[in-house]
Write a structure and sequence with these properties.
By secondary structure, the chain is an alpha+beta fold. It has one domain. The protein has four helices and eight strands; from the N terminus they run ββββαββαββαα. Strands 1, 2, 3, 4, 5, 6, 7 and 8 form an eight-stranded mixed sheet that branches. Helix 3 crosses helix 4. The longest helix has 16 residues.
Length: 170
């Protein structure tokens, strides 16, 4: 899907020990058709999950910080609260150094559509969602006005999801 072979990333810090033994982060470097880095969880969903889900994030450069955020988010999903589309998570720090975006929004993979969202593994359908870095103000706006209103604001303001220094859209 990402147009280049994945680089499995071994992450040993944080709550990685609480995740399934087959859990890993996959990193996809830029290539001729895509100038950004993509990171994805693999093994966050398990065979007995009622609603299996994996997440991906994008970055303008290679970043172990993104790998850590995906590990922490996967741990929260598996041991804290089951996450789904429209949920937001508090990263507890900027997604990339110096960024105002300290939260993530679980969203449909609008850039790639249903070809990425719906992954068939045998008889199981695994949902693959986009974890978009967002600001505290955007989280508050979503809580007050709903997910659709926030996504409309993103579209109207041409959200630059790759800019760690972007201003809030609300």
């Amino acid at each position: 899907m990402w147009g280049v072979e994945a680089e499995p990333r071994q992450f040993s810090a944080g709550p990685i020990q609480r995740l399934p033994v087959d859990f890993i982060i996959l990193r996809y470097p830029p290539h001729a058709d895509r100038s950004i880095w993509a990171y994805a969880t693999c093994g966050m969903s398990q065979p007995n999950d009622a609603q299996p889900m994996e997440l991906h994030m994008f970055s303008p450069w290679a970043s172990p910080e993104i790998e850590e955020l995906l590990v922490v988010t996967a741990d929260f999903h598996r041991t804290g609260a089951t996450l789904d589309v429209g949920h937001s998570v508090n990263f507890g720090r900027p997604w990339l150094r110096g960024s105002r975006c300290q939260h993530g929004l679980i969203s449909l993979p609008y850039l790639y559509g249903s070809s990425l969202e719906n992954l068939r593994i045998g008889p199981r359908l695994v949902k693959c969602y986009w974890l978009i870095p967002i600001t505290s103000d955007e989280v508050n706006y979503k809580q007050q006005n709903g997910l659709e209103a926030l996504e409309q604001t993103f579209e109207q303001k041409c959200l630059n999801y790759l800019d760690p220094n972007r201003e809030s859209t609300v």
